[in-house]
Amino acid sequence: MVGDLIRLKLAIQRHTHSWKRALGLLAGVLAAAATWAAVFLAEPASRTDVLLLVLACWTAGWLIGPVLTSGAAMLRPEYFTLLPLARRGLGAGLLASAFAGVGGAVTAIAALALIPYAFATATGGTAIASVAVALVGAVLLVVFVVALSRTVYALLGAAMRTHLGVELAAVQYGLLLSSMTAGWAVVRPVLDSVPVFLRDGFGTVPARAALEWTPFGLPLRAVGEMAAGRPLPALGSLALLAGATAAVTAAAIALLTPHVGARTARRRRRPLGSRVLTRARLLPASPLGAVVGKELRTWWRDPWRSLEVRSAIWFGVFIAVYGAIAGVPEIAGLAGAAVALTVALSGANLYGQDGTALWQLVVAESPATVRADIRGRQIGITVLFGLPALVLSAAMMAVTGILTYAVPILAVLIALLGVGCGTAVVMSVLGATPGVDPHRRVNATDAGENTAGIFAAFQIQLWATAPTSGMAAMLTFAGDSLPDWFGAATLAVALVNAVAGAWLGGAIATRRLATRLPETFGKLRQS
């Protein structure tokens, strides 16, 4: 059974996009090469510290990587629920299949860097014993990080039914987005410190004493003890690592074991903000008002939609943090604009996120209902992302004292919101990607993957807001030499840019969906 599951996973991987496989292979090979290079480039006194940090990065990558991609959910336990298979055996087989592929291979290669480390630290006649300990430690370390990754991924999927779980996932997504866009602000100081770290290690910082007792530090500790001629402490370190590996392996098998039962937990309280729409009527009694109310409730109540909003907010917060670290407060002022930038990204697959719920629109198909559905979704996503963006921008400008940039920041924010909501509905119709129906979702990546649509939406949003961005840049860098009316003109252009982008995008999406509604529904039914 294990062989069948591994072959099934490899067959699925062969049918993924070739550029994804090539990119993953390239990134993995470079990371493994960097691990080996760290052993040879580090000074003898700092070699242990350097390898400790590198192995910590590998562990962190296995913890975060599956959450940010959909690869870990390739073989879902519920697919095999009705098969006449031993449940615990199936869980073990699913865990074993996690080692198959590029990730497991490059991690094993990186872990084998412990062997040259053993040769480098061995003294006298302890080389052979040190290499043996390094080999055992490498095997245990690979099993540990993969099992820990699957355990954390499964626990996060279960936690997605709780507010804390959604918040934790949102922090990770926000950190990733902010690192990709503003990470350059702190990359240079880090790169400048690499030669120093290769020479001095942690120095006077007591990080080594703590890290060497972690599971990724125990192999290094075991090799060091054996190289020093102390076999009992070395075997004790390996025993501790074996115990930790056994514990996370048992947990992963238990979490990967298919089960039949309720997948959603009963709410103990209503989501914050949902009472706003259920007290006095705030929305018109019309199809448009109904769609807006439905969208606002969905974004508040659905954990996977809520994850998008919270990730956008954390994206803005981390942008401000990077600006503070780099000593550039102007970057912090763009925190709200960063939230607005995610409108098109988060809404690039609205119909895919709803699953097969599109049948309701198919049943009530008419030009008016399709138009109301598109426009209502635009209004809902603009309100849900626009309010946090405005609040975050105002807060960051007040904290950093860059109120003189309020006009260009507000102009960019308005343009991004308008163009973003138009781009979102266009990509949701043109690139609707089947996902897991809401009532079947388990993992953080179950709302549907639309990588190409997200990338296209990002590019469209940037280019479509170029008129506003250009005037805002002129106002920022040459404000003193411009006439007094230029600020008002920038806001006027931003407003026209936003209205035109929202109207045009909605019109294109409405026309496309009205003419191909059955085909779009048929595509989503394949989830």
Structural commentary:
It is a single chain. The chain has 527 residues and is mainly α. The protein contains 24 helices and no strands. It has helices at 2-14, 18-41, 47-68, 87-97, 102-111, 114-121, 127-159, 163-182, 184-200, 207-211, 218-227, 231-256, 287-301, 303-326, 329-332, 335-346, 350-353, 359-363, 367-400, 406-430, 451-464, 466-477, 486-515, 517-524. Helix 5 (102-111) runs antiparallel to helix 7 and helix 19 runs antiparallel to helix 20. The longest helix is centred in the last third of the chain and has 34 residues, at 367-400. It starts with a helix and ends with a helix. 44% of the residues are buried. The mean pLDDT is 81.
Summary keywords:
single chain; 527 residues; mainly alpha; 24 helices; 0% strand; globular
Secondary-structure map:
Layout: H1 2-14, H2 18-41, H3 47-68, H4 87-97, H5 102-111, H6 114-121, H7 127-159, H8 163-182, H9 184-200, H10 207-211, H11 218-227, H12 231-256, H13 287-301, H14 303-326, H15 329-332, H16 335-346, H17 350-353, H18 359-363, H19 367-400, H20 406-430, H21 451-464, H22 466-477, H23 486-515, H24 517-524
Q: Using the CA coordinates, give the radius of gyration.
A: 26 Å
Helix content: over 70%
The class by helix and strand makeup works out as mainly alpha
SSE string: HHHHHHHHHHHHHHHHHHHHHHHH
By DSSP (H or I, 4+ residues per run), the number of helices equals 24
Mean pLDDT: 81
Largest sheet report: none
Number of strands: 0
Low-confidence stretches: none
| Alpha carbon gap, first and last residue | 25 Å
Shape: globular
Tell me the fraction of residues in β-strands, as a range.
Answer: under 5%
